[in-house]
# Entry
Amino acid sequence: MSINFLEINNATFVASKKNKVLDFNLTIKNEGDIICLLGPSGIGKTTILRSIAGLQKIPKGKIFLKGNLLSSEIDHVEPEKRNVALSFQDNSLFPHYTILENINFGAKRNKNANYNFESDELIKLLHLEGLAEKYPHQVSAGEAQRVSLARSLMSKPDLLLLDEPFSNVDESLKVELQQNIKKILKEKKITTIIVTHDSYEAFYMADYCGILLSQTMKQFDTPYNIYHYPNSIEVVNFLNRGILVDAKVLDESSVEHKCLGVIKGNFVKKYKKGTAVKLLVQPDDLEHDDKSDLKLEIIDRKFRGTNFIYTLKTKNDDLIPVFVHSHHIHQHEVEEKFGIKTPIYIDHLVCF
# Structure
């Protein structure tokens, strides 16, 4: 019988009366998997990481790592005996150590690890060149955050915990760092849990994502499935990747919207004919067609580099987002009419 790498069973995590997560379950089967926990600020994401690292006790539930019990209502393995590294969002460096000394702190830990790092390697990977002899108060918040990450990697943990690891990093550097970190985590098979409120970051970094809302885990799945098959209106609203519109089920493969007309596709859940539903329409579900007879008014346009997102208003005041490639033959202006290709087909008919 194989042992899951990490198991958290029916755990409660508490930071305050309002900041808590209840009946939390998480299983990481494979070493080297990257998990992202997504949720709004103050939901308790950091508290979960602190509890896994052993910095907080849990009042209920159990946490196992590689088959060993770390935490329960009565058991608590001290942080230094867990071989779990936590890289904090805020500056947690030793102020009297240089940057290089901070990175090398703990390098002698876990001599049995099947991978290793050199400080020069991590300095280059995280763009920390020229900072080795400086002290934490002499570097920026983003640099301190990357030093903390380098220090965590140097300790060769069985489990790496990252709290908003790129929150203080300039956008121009963030994409490269995400690529570098993901590559090295996969190459070294370092099992990692990342806490973030950025769904784009989570969808890129993670093998699996957990959505935390209203003090509980609402959904745990692959990024693709969470985007295309959200399991609740709460998840849809949190991801903010589309709009829910009123529709009526016509048959086993189609719904009808008052303005968009008949929409065909594959239902994620089965509904009886005539059922009134809320249909999820995402920006990539509809296609633009200048020659279409179905035209809606443009009320907003956002440029996203590779594409535009047009917000269209229907006769019943639904505001529907639509992607259009930025190389489309011409741009459309606000208050113009915008054509939607018909008949409409949406592969995933997600309804509530």
Remarks:
- The chain has two domains: 6-234, 242-349.
- The radius of gyration is 24 Å.
